[in-house]
């Protein structure tokens, strides 16, 4: 992975984390979105969370793994790993690459 994508992904994770820091895990995708909305997250954060697959994240690390590298992210229990999003692979907002 190129350094530009690494920086972009880290920047995105930092911003998303700012708005979902108080979430208790396990947490469903919908809970993450609700928390971010209530915290006043900008559209790019809401859009990013909206790209996540509908699932329950057991830990924050599971969420990070899916954003950073969806191909190696652990599959949630009883879920088909083919439902994973390709977040971080061409779906990051352009501003994160500047």
Walkthrough of the structure:
Helices cover 46% and strands 4% of the residues. The chain has four helices and two strands. The chain is globular, with a radius of gyration of 13 Å. The relative contact order is 0.19. Residues 80-91 have low confidence and may be disordered.
Number of strands: 2
Give the helix proportion (percent range). 40-55%
Give the count of helical stretches.
Answer: 4
Cα(first) to Cα(last) distance is 16 Å
Principal-axis shape? globular
Biggest beta sheet summary: 2 strands, antiparallel
Strand coverage percent: under 5%
Helix-strand sequence: HEHHEH
Major beta sheet, strand line-up: 1-2
Which consecutive residue ranges, at least 5 long each, have pLDDT under 50?
Answer: 80-91
Rounded radius of gyration (Å): 13 Å
Give the rounded overall mean pLDDT: 75
Structural class: mainly alpha
Question: Can I get a quick summary?
Answer:
The chain is 46% helix and 4% strand. It is mainly alpha-helical and 98 residues long. It is globular, with a radius of gyration of 13 Å.
Quick tags:
4% strand, globular, 4 helices, 2 strands, mainly alpha
Topology:
Blueprint: H1 3-20, E1 27-28, H2 29-38, H3 43-50, E2 56-57, H4 60-68
Antiparallel strand pairs: 1-2
């Amino acid at each position: 992975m190129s350094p530009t994508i690494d920086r972009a992904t880290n920047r995105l994770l930092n911003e998303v984390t700012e708005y979902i820091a108080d979430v208790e895990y396990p947490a469903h995708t919908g809970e993450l979105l609700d928390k971010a909305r209530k915290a006043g997250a900008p559209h790019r954060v809401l859009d990013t969370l909206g790209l996540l697959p509908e699932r329950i994240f057991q830990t924050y690390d599971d969420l990070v793994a899916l954003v950073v590298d969806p191909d190696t992210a652990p599959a949630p229990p009883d879920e088909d790993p083919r439902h994973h999003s390709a977040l971080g692979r061409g779906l990051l907002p352009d501003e994160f690459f500047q």
